[in-house]
Amino acid sequence: MNTPSNQRRWSSRLMFFAAAIGSAVGISNIWKFTYVAGENGGGAFVLVYVLAIAFVALPALAAEFMIGRRGGASVQMTMDRLAGKDGISRAWRYYGLMAVSGAFLALSFYAVVAGWTIDYFFVAVSSGFDGFNTQQAGASLASMLGSPGRMMISQAVFLGLTVAVVAAGVRRGLEQALKWMTPALFVILLILLAYSVVEGDMRAALQFMFVADFSALNANTVMMAVGQAFFSLGIGLGVLMTVAAYMDRETSILGAAAVVAFADGFVALLAGLAIFPVVFANGLSPAEGPGLIFATLPVAFGQIPGGWLVGPLFFLLMAFAALTSAITILETVVAWAEDYTRFNRRQLACGIGIALWLTGLLTVFSFNAWSDFRLLPFVPALADKTLFGIFDYVVSNLMMPAGGVAVAILAGWSLSAAASREEWGNGSARAYHVWRFLVRYLVPIVIALIFLANMGG
Fold first, then answer.
1. C-beta of residue 267 within 8 angstroms of C-beta of residue 28
2. Angle at CA 370, nearest 5°, toward 148 and 378?
3. Domains of the chain with CATH codes
4. SS3 for 435?
5. N-to-C CA span, the chain
6. In the chain, what is the greatest distance between 2 CA atoms, to the nearest angstrom?
7. pLDDT tens digits for 399-412?
8. Which ranges of 341-416 would DSSP assign to H, the alpha helix?
């Protein structure tokens, strides 16, 4: 077993924020938010989403930051340390194991989907989607999904980049990558937004996103919005807990959580304002589901002025968002292995990277050779799902909600008020009491409701 390294510390508060924001802002903010908002009424969905960030996601994120910084190590070792330091049950180490397992499984299929963004970036650079119509865009997507070799290559490239960063360590790897990738992500997004203001139908986009049609609100819409706000941050799998473990003692827990939660929601809203004007200007539907990014937008990029530049920029944005998240997810797994084995970081990063690539092949083949295979036809919620569908369901609908409830219970109930108040620092006492109430009652109840709804399929 290695002793947790003092080298696993951020060199500055700015680097912590670059890592935390880079981790929170992923494909989900750009891809999933836009199509889920499109399918669920636009403005009404956005309103619930913003409220959920403030009252559910932010308190839960503060809890994860608090636990991570107090433990100062990988997720499982943090649980072991808190058991010795603060007297929490040693059974919490099993949450640590679940979190790391969930992070590994999530990255195994996330890398495959992230590989699509790299693939489409090169397609955009080479052809610019010139003259694409709906049929051609659909055929292009089907061609990629139907080619295991092509997907395996893009998956390997993405994982190779991720492994190279993590293998170099926190300061020589993660910091050097994230200090320019996270700002670059915002710069590209702002360029795309500026383009949409000039060339897109911004009025239609603003009306769609911010004029709330409350007739579109139903229980499913509310659950989708709350789930998107909560899970786009990646809470529950120990990723941001690991990022916070390397944080300095002077940083405000509430302030840090507010900045990261705001940035996460801000990127999702900016992405909507960058994407929907282009969609509306070309007479396309915003409610196209996952195909919005890989089938609908290429048609728009092939028709709009400057599409040869905007298309590559968009998929570069997607690739950066995926990579900044993947780096911290892999760091979560590698840090755990570093704490509990005698292998060095480079060996662990490479070995785990290979294991992720091999596990990811199950996802790759789910879209082609094994697309008709159903592993669990006797389980109603999983009967019609491919292996990829099962992995996604287990991580997103079961492990993350369970992990989110666990974090809320740990911070709100298992950790003493004295310990949490000490970790809160010199922040407002009133804000602390509001946070503690929310994390003890509202957060676990809301996440438990999402969990129960997801259990129903």
1. no
2. 150
3. 13-455 (1.20.1740)
4. helix
5. 41
6. 64
7. 999 999 999 999 99
8. 345-366, 387-393, 400-409
